[in-house]
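Hi R.,

Here's the chain you asked about this morning:
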Amino acid sequence: MRASRVCRLLPWVLGLGIGAAQDVAITNARIIVGNGTAVPSGTIIVRGGKIVSAGAGPADTKGLKVIDAKGMSAMPGFIDAHKHINTGPNEKEQMESLLEAGYTTILSGGGPGDGNLALRDHIESGMINGPRIIPSERVNLRGTPEEARAAVRAMAAKGIKHTGEIALTPEPGPTPQEIEVLKAVVDEAAKAGVQVNVHAVSSAAMVRDFSKPTMAGRSPRASSPKT
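And here is the predicted structure, written out as tokens:
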């Protein structure tokens, strides 16, 4: 119970900080460090919505809002590297639920790019509380290679640096057209600095993707299908 309460405490403070530039001191906290060690009782200082120090014992809290953790544990926020998100009427509740669960960064697993950007902007402007959003955008493999290249360039021009998950035909396997379009996507993405994310359609495909460079000299990031 104590751990679940703290997991929510720090993401909540940082979520407020994105838009409101909170200056906060969290005192009497058990601080769990990323390497697995723990500080039994320490203080975390947040200025302008960012952690500037975390260490054992008390610290200078002058001019800061002080939150007494009363021995609860504070730990680094979680990162979800494949979450389907979008702007919409329920975004406030959805984003706050992610913060409550301890997630402070979300990489979109796929969705409309403009919707991802709008959601990110709503959080960064302070309109709603939520985790840091890394947007992505879908790329259609059913078109031509040139259409796919144009889609990647348009995505990069908007500041989106990840494709959404790209689904290939699992059985009997990707079509020659899909492979040709995917080659174009990976090649253009390498030029534009965009990370390509694809669904892994089989164990053999995953092993092949990560055992050697593919297509444009780099492997797409594989994500196993949800069951």
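One quick note: The CA atoms of residues 31 and 49 lie 18 Å apart.

Cheers,
M.
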